[in-house]
Amino acid sequence: MNIEGLDYNTQREHLVLPEYGREIQSMVDYAVNIPDRTERQRCAETIIDIMRRMVPQNGDNENFKQKLWDHLALMSGFRLDIDYPYDVTDAIKIATKPEPIPYPMKDIPVRHYGSMMFDIFEKLKDMPDGPERDELIRITANQMKRNLAQWGHGSVDNEKVADDLARYTDGKVQLDLDTFRFERKVGKDGKRKRK
Length: 195
What we know:
Blueprint: H1 21-32, H2 37-54, H3 62-75, H4 92-95, H5 115-126, H6 131-151, H7 158-168, E1 183-186, E2 192-194
Antiparallel strand pairs: 1-2
């Protein structure tokens, strides 16, 4: 569909710094093509003044002024031939994207519990009996129940949590549902209620 006079941003040229908008980018493109150096300098200073007014709370900060000139150089693709009041050679660092952080891929049976829960399951397998283990079991079972409720995987009943906890700890942890009490939602007094 092509309607005369109607264009979409996806059809337009990519903005180098979208936070300044298409109008500022158009001004920069215009300034690059001005043949007279004095007129080009005056135009660049006017553009900087407009950019400064877009964020008035930082207007007098010296670092902010340097940043504006860096942004002007970036938006012009370093083609704007003017006398910059600051050194803009480091401006390219602003546009450089960082290397992506590799995501640790672990093979876990179900994703709704997350890899940290499976680390806890492994710890529970070898942990000696005692109050510390009992507390970790209580915290783990309650977190499992919250995860199931959040991800909405079928029933969030206590039997499912107990079965999963026993399965993923190779039967080393068996919840006695007659005595074990799950936490309920936070009450009006800000304290967790037990079921």
